[in-house]
Structure formats: structure tokens, C-alpha cells
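Exercise: predict the fold of this chain.
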Amino acid sequence: AAACAALALRVLARGAVAVSEHAPAGAPVTADRIAVGAAHRDQVAAIRAHLGAAGAGVTVDTANRLQGREYDVTIVLHPLSGRRDATAFHLESGRLCVLTSRHRHACVVVARAGIAELLDAHPSTEPVHLDVPVKFPDGWQANQAILDHLHHPRRP
């Protein structure tokens, strides 16, 4: 929570500028254009507490409440960060998708070490049906793909 808040405050302090079709000459990334997303309400409360008055205007909310909104910069507390187990709630692919897709310019993922090991140790409890297409993205697979991308970014 402290790291997420510090990053948001750092973006404000550095005077970030976003260039887009709406502002070809660039526009300041103000507090209302920054969001911090987390999986749980208690994490949101902790991040808000760390932001204090200096973070007034920065949106801090859960993935469910950020859905459908857009910001120049998002800071994401990874849903599996610091977990000892990988529950269905934390592996839900939609939550991870929402958290990592609310930005227009930059998304910073904050996480503790050990997520890959947690995923590797997570036993699948879902029945496997051969030759049946998966209807929804698998959360375990989505988390592995995100981690792979973060560890091996592909630049155009």
C-alpha cells in the first residue's frame, strides 16, 4: 500500500505530461487522471491512508469499482501480491484484466516476490474436460501471462 501511494505521489511531484489525440501538445497528469487499483477494500483504505492530503483527487478503488473508467496513469497492487494462497477470488481473470487495462499511457504493477511460485504451487480444482473449449479466460493462465509479460517485455 505504501509503495502504491508513493508512486502516485511521485507521478504528481514529477509533473508528468500526457500526449494524446486529446492533447497533442501535452497535458499535465493531474491527480484526477491517476488511479490506484487493488483487489480488496482494506487495501484501498490503506493506500488512501498512505496518500493522505497530498493525494487528494487521486482515485483509489477496487477493480470492481474502476471498471469502465479510464485514467492517464494507473498503479495496480497485484491481486496475488503477498498472498499465501491463490483463491478463486484472487485468480479471477476479469479482476486482473480490469486492473491492468484502465490506463491510457502507463500502468505500473506493484507486487511482492513469490507470485510465480504461488501460481506454480496452486493445485487446480476445476475438472478438466478434453476437447471442450474454455468459455472464459482461466485466471491461473491470465496471471502467468501477465507475469511473463512483466518479466520479458516486448517492445515494438
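Check your answer against the key: The chain is about 40% helix and 20% strand.
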